[in-house]
Amino acid sequence: MQAYDLIIVGGGIGGSALATVMARAGRSVLLLEQSEVYEDRVRGEWIAPWGVAEVQRLGLYDLLVQAGGHHITRHITYDETLAPAEAESAPLPLGFFKEGVPGPLCLPHPLHCQTLFDAARDAGATALRGVRVEAVFGGSDPHVVYEIGDQTVEAHARLVIGADGRTSQVREAAGIVLHQDKPHHWFAGLLVEGAGGWDPDLQAIGTEGDFGFLAFPQGGGKIRIYGGYPLDQTQRFKGPDGPRRFLDAFALTCSPEDRHIVAGAPAGPLFSFFNADAWTDEPFAEGVVLVGDAAGWNDPILGLGLSITYRDVRVVSDLLKSADDWTALSFAPYAEERAERMRRLRFTAKLTAAIDMEFGEAAQARRRSLFERAAADPSLKIHAFAVMAGPESLPPEIFTDAHRDRVLGA
């Protein structure tokens, strides 16, 4: 029988980051990852400034930069109701949201995962790939039964961490309920290469016709692009020519720079998924704690999956490092902070979707009205600080129906 302080199920970004931090703190860690090779999952490549600050607090920032992390420093919002010159006249600088953070940080997801997995092993964690977890047990005797090669192993620990994503086996074993809201739109993503004409320091969003886009350059002529479209267009980008049709959808009049995207080539798979949020009331049970998507996720329209995960890792690791006796350690502070964090981000995502991912004449008029009113009253866009500076950076009254009504002109 094997024994550890921590068993972490899931060797993606959250699991490997936590394993690295805790192994560096002198705890014995078993890190279990199912995949043999990390693959492009069309998400997890953009860290907001508040998330970068969490990476810095965890002592992982230099590691990610050395691996090729790329900062974005400017943002432009395009729209069919704005002339391109008007949209481009005042790009938003992204370096003022967090001191010491020049802007969002981008790193290809597979490389990001591998960098952290290697760091966990280098820090002393027992990090295993090609693992099939057969069973997870919490309670007073947390343990995991897993297969690797032709061996079946039972490993015990003081605590099991579920970092195993949206379909978390650990969450199910612990009986932790996942809540999910109704989807609002389809959201598709693709990595593009050969887009060297795009400014590598510029990210952009925009809406035209029945399509809303987001573009996050990764450096080296690569851009991670996303597109939102109506729920009734299920087949819009299906089929073998779907990636090409998806790129062609970026030929928008309102955003001339998108021509560089259209001229690019797919560098990975095209995936479409619903935008819905999901959350847990308490991301822990006796002997078990969840981090990252296993504990619930935010609408990807905000791009905050990594920032949320790094905050989870930082809060949980701080609690674990604060005491040697974990039997009396309460994870209630983590649950309370995360519940309010995710509530605020759900609000912000729904408001953002109503602005950027609704289509037709009424939605167009609503966006134009917002642009005109916000020019005189910038507070109408203050909810964007929740995305860049963190949801805790704004007062509670921003996350209310009253603010939503002001923004949408209700």
Q: Which structural class fits the helix and strand makeup?
A: alpha+beta
Mean pLDDT: 96
What are the low-pLDDT stretches, counting only 5+ consecutive residues below 50?
A: none
| Cα-based radius of gyration, to the nearest Å | 21 Å
Q: Work out the number of β strands.
A: 21
How does the major sheet shape up?
Answer: 8 strands, mixed
What CATH first level of the largest domain would be assigned?
Answer: Alpha Beta
User: Can you say what the CATH homologous superfamily of the largest domain is?
Assistant: FAD/NAD(P)-binding domain
Q: Measure the end-to-end span.
A: 62 Å
Shape field:
globular
Provide a descriptive summary of the structure in words.
- The chain is α+β, with helices and mostly antiparallel strands and 410 residues long.
- It folds into two domains: 2-65 and 107-181 and 277-344, FAD/NAD(P)-binding domain (3-Layer(bba) Sandwich), CATH 3.50.50.60; 72-103 and 185-274, D-Amino Acid Oxidase, Chain A, domain 2 (2-Layer Sandwich).
- Helices cover 33% and strands 25% of the residues.
- The chain has helices at 13-24, 49-57, 61-66, 84-88, 109-122, 169-174, 242-248, 259-262, 305-321, 332-356, 361-376, 384-388, 401-408; strands at residues 2-9, 29-32, 46-47, 70-71, 74-79, 92-93, 105-106, 126-128, 131-137, 143-148, 151-162, 178-180, 186-193, 202-208, 211-219, 222-229, 265-266, 271-274, 278-280, 284-285, 288-290.
- The strands form four sheets. Strands 1, 2, 8, 9, 10, 11, 20 and 21 form an eight-stranded mixed sheet that branches. Strands 5, 6, 13, 14, 15, 16, 17 and 18 form an eight-stranded mixed sheet that branches. A three-stranded antiparallel sheet has the order 3-7-4.
- Helix 1 (13-24) packs parallel to helix 5 (109-122) and helix 1 packs parallel to helix 9 (305-321).
- The termini are far apart.
- The mean pLDDT is 96.
